[in-house]
Amino acid sequence: MTSPPVLDGWEEGTHTAEGRTHPTYRRGTGPGVVVIHEVPGITPEVVAFAEEVVGAGFTVVMPHLFGTPGAPGTVGEVLRVVPRLCVNREFTILAAGRTSPLAGWLRSLARELHQDVGGPGVGVVGMCFTGGFALATMVDPSVAAPVVAQPSLPMAVGRRRKADLGLSPADLETVKSRVAQGCSVLGVRYDGDPATGTRFETLQRELGDGFLRVDLPSAGRGQHATLTAHRSQEAVDRVLAFFRQRLQSS
């Protein structure tokens, strides 16, 4: 695995769990945060956001799950990656009421990072295609600060899928229990983003005050990636403040 220039200074590694191995990139010191990239992969904008988290005093691990690390988030790159994801058994693209098989691997990664850096727990950020994975990881008690950024799976086709959180009923009950015990969930999206369907309404109904909802005003059609390609300073500030409050305050 050879790092592109945009990842200079990041330590390359791998993580194996659940019969799966994926490359990882790590940088920083302090409490841990797992940054799960969006489609089409670890773009320069994803790296820039991860660098901001590092600069705020955290150890960041980015797993490389698909795409080409460092490749720009062009339409061509998206079109190259998405068909492969549709047949990848690690992900649940259309099915409602199911947790993607990759969730177990991500929980293991979060658990390992927490064991390594200590603290009250780790943060996890999921974005777009991986937005709901932050919820799936908080089934593990090592995750203390889950951030759901414009969650887009299952694909928002039909009323049921638009509202679905990408969790099995058992995992949803565990998430609700953890929230009831004080583990809040932060959600950020652009208001009216069709890719997120009605998932924020579902989260609000299921988690109550434990869901910290941020609806950003949209400057026009097509705004989606709150932390990266269509970066909102308010969204980034809210995420960093959430991590400080949950991971650095004790």
UniProtKB/TrEMBL annotation:
The keyword Hydrolase applies. SUPFAM superfamilies: alpha/beta-Hydrolases. InterPro entries: AB_hydrolase_fold, Dienelactn_hydro. The keyword Hydrolase applies. Residues 1-29 are annotated as: Disordered. Residues 12-21 have a biased composition (Basic and acidic residues). Signal peptide: none annotated. Gene3D superfamilies: alpha/beta hydrolase (3.40.50.1820). Residues 29-151 form the Dienelactone hydrolase domain. One of its GO terms (molecular function) is hydrolase activity. Keywords: Hydrolase. This is Dienelactone hydrolase. It comes from Pedococcus cremeus. The lineage of its organism: Bacteria, Bacillati, Actinomycetota, Actinomycetes, Micrococcales.
